[in-house]
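Structure tokens please, single chain.
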Amino acid sequence: MFGRLLDKLIFGAALLAALQLPLLADHYQQYLSGLYDATQWQVDGYEATAHQFGYASTQAMIERHLTNDEPSVQADARQKQATLIRYQALQHGLAVFRQGDLMAKTLYMFHPSRIEQLETTLENFKPGIPLTVHGILFGVIAALAVNLLLTFPFLLVARWLRKKQIKAAPSGRYKIS
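Here you go.
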């Protein structure tokens, strides 16, 4: 009886947690889109400046500024380089969220290098229930998988103990039901 109750509690908790992933992925995509738009605005400004001053590309302008003798110009160029790298990473992330499935999105969100972005998203996250069939199916399947993973070792131990009891019981006196 206690085992069945624990099994149901584990499944219920896993279901509630798994149902949050599709919603979290939507919130994360919105955060990523906003960050991408802001970064794109900066990159567009870099491109306009490079074009205005006759550079072949933004990267050519940055490389030229890195060789400048003025430390503030070099620091600005390094900052622009970092922004371009972040912009490319954001492009990749948005591609994952536009084309990937929920598992790919989850792996992207929970990657250790993006924990800060996930924490920022979680600050504004409100739990709920997804309204898509895909989200609900993912929640149920994930909850079943977590439930099986957590309860399987206990099932093995219970079967082993039952077999041990059957072998230890004197014949004829043990009733198997």
